[in-house]
Amino acid sequence: MSEKDIFVLGIETSCDETAAAIVKNGREIIANVVASQMESHQRFGGVVPEIASRHHVEQITLVLEETMRRANMDVNELDAIAVTEGPGLVGALLIGVNAAKALAFAHRIPLVGVHHIAGHIYANRLVQEMKFPLLALVVSGGHTELVYMKEHGMFEVIGETRDDAAGEAYDKVARALQLPYPGGPHIDRLAKEGKPIIDLPRAWLEEGSYDFSFSGLKSAVINTLHNAKQRGETLRPEDMAASFQASVVEVLVEKTMQAAAHYGVKQILLAGGVAANEGLRTQLREQMKRLPEVELVIPPLSLCTDNAAMIAAAGTVLLQQGKRASMALNANPSLLL
Ligand code: KG4
Ligand code: ZN
């Protein structure tokens, strides 16, 4: 290769993972460090913003040093620093943004601001080169979106949740079933042992809409559990998990298939923490038979949940497109894609 290799440092602190990574040419992970705070939040049943910020402050320097050490690189060898500027918890985002600005300023390195969801989508590029046009199904604790991409760096949200995110619904239903936080993996595990025999709604919304809604489903689960308890009946948690998962997965997969066919995409990318869901992966793979010419890409679990390699990957593309942030870059908790 005659062109010079591009090395980008990614920084991610939007929620409860303090993460840094170095990615080469937007596709190859050189180092990838994630410090999770999950245990600190578990006893509260969700992420506590104040605690998250404190952990980020404690961890950020250590995580950055560890990343440089693992990559065996010097900061001056970096071509850019990419950081999640939003959306997320403002106090958490600020730690990453300020660390990135300090490094970029001190070493005179270009700075790039990255949207967290763009990062989740670009996690796929660390596995497989993107083929446009493509459709990304982004499902996480804070997001449920169908994103159409005509080319690199161009994101069109064609559908999104009108209430709860898919991961949020998993976590709330898990809480109703008295499972630990985060509940997604626990429901996923229980669902395998149960049968989807409990009748629960599917929110298809208006004809042709690619939007989602999960709050009615969540309420239906809570009401069903409550009514059973009042009648002195016991519902098997495994069956409830299987029935809930069947409803979520059916709607996610069906809308993704319809959108993929309608937009004539070459690839479907799965992104976000809920992409770890076995039921979703299996059902998507199964339904892909309907679109034999479309390629399905699913990143490994470690790249589905929050990490900084995905931020570096997205940041590389933005850098190549000449999109630089100034020293005025700020955390934006409600940044639009
Ligand atoms: O992307 P992520 O790590 O953080 C956000 O940006 O939100 O996603 C976390 C979410 C949580 O709601 C968690 O319960 C869910 O992903 N999750 C799962 C599974 N693993 C994680 N949901 C369903 N099934 C899973 N196996
Ligand atoms: Zn995320």
TrEMBL record:
Gene Ontology molecular function: iron ion binding; tRNA N(6)-L-threonylcarbamoyladenine synthase activity
Pfam families given in the database record: TsaD (PF00814)
Entry keyword annotation includes Cytoplasm: yes
CDD domains: ASKHA_NBD_TsaD_bac
Keyword RNA-binding found: no
Keywords, ordered alphabetically: Acyltransferase, Cytoplasm, Iron, Metal-binding, Transferase, tRNA processing
Binding residue positions for substrate: V138, V139, S140, G141, G142, D171, G184, D188, N277
Domain of life: Bacteria
Residues at which Fe cation binds: H116, H120, D306
Domain Gcp-like: 28-312
Example GO biological process: tRNA threonylcarbamoyladenosine modification
Cofactor mode of binding and number, as noted: Binds 1 Fe(2+) ion per subunit.
An example Gene Ontology CC term for this record: cytoplasm
Catalytic activity entry: L-threonylcarbamoyladenylate + adenosine(37) in tRNA = N(6)-L-threonylcarbamoyladenosine(37) in tRNA + AMP + H(+)
EC number(s) from the headed UniProt entry: 2.3.1.234
Family annotation (SUPFAM superfamilies): Actin-like ATPase domain
Required co-factors: Fe(2+)
Subcellular localization(s) per the UniProt record: Cytoplasm
Protein task: Required for the formation of a threonylcarbamoyl group on adenosine at position 37 (t(6)A37) in tRNAs that read codons beginning with adenine. Is involved in the transfer of the threonylcarbamoyl moiety of threonylcarbamoyl-AMP (TC-AMP) to the N6 group of A37, together with TsaE and TsaB. TsaD likely plays a direct catalytic role in this reaction.
Family: Belongs to the KAE1 / TsaD family.
Protein name per the record: tRNA N6-adenosine threonylcarbamoyltransferase
